[in-house]
Each structure stands twice: as C-alpha cells, then as structure tokens.
Design a protein that fits this description.
0% strand; mainly alpha
C-alpha cells in the first residue's frame, strides 16, 4: 500500500510541476523542441487509439484473441 501512496503523491507532484517546466521550455527553449514534444505525444495517443480499435475490431470479427492480462493460461481453440 505504501508504494501505491508514493506513486499517487509522485504523480500529483509531477502534474503540478509540469506547467512550470513546460513554461520554461516555451520561454527559454527552442520552439522546434516544443513542436517535437507535441508531435511525439500526439503520436503516442493515436497509436494507442488505433491499437485498441484494432483489437476490438479483430474480436468483433470473431478472431480468437487472448484476454489482456490473463497471462499464459489456457490455449484458445
């Protein structure tokens, strides 16, 4: 439980610190760096959305897929 509390505290601290750091990048940094960061984050979001949609589509088509998080259990027939 202590690790979970530490994780939440660290996450909230980083969320509070992020606008300050982003402001420093905008104020002092190269605008091209900010553009690269925005493109990278957008790419991650789009890739995750396409992966989830693709997994759902394959399941809807009746293709047997392993359940996410089930581990190496029973073989799907």
């Amino acid at each position: 439980m202590n690790a979970f509390v530490d994780f939440v505290v660290r996450l909230l601290g980083d969320v509070i610190l992020m606008p300050i750091l982003l402001g420093r990048v905008v104020r002092d940094g190269d605008p091209m760096l900010l553009s690269a960061i925005i493109v990278a984050v957008g790419t991650v979001f789009i890739t995750a959305a396409v992966a989830v949609f693709g997994y759902a589509l394959l399941g809807a088509l009746g293709i047997p897929l392993p359940k996410l998080g089930s581990g190496p259990g029973k073989q799907i027939e």
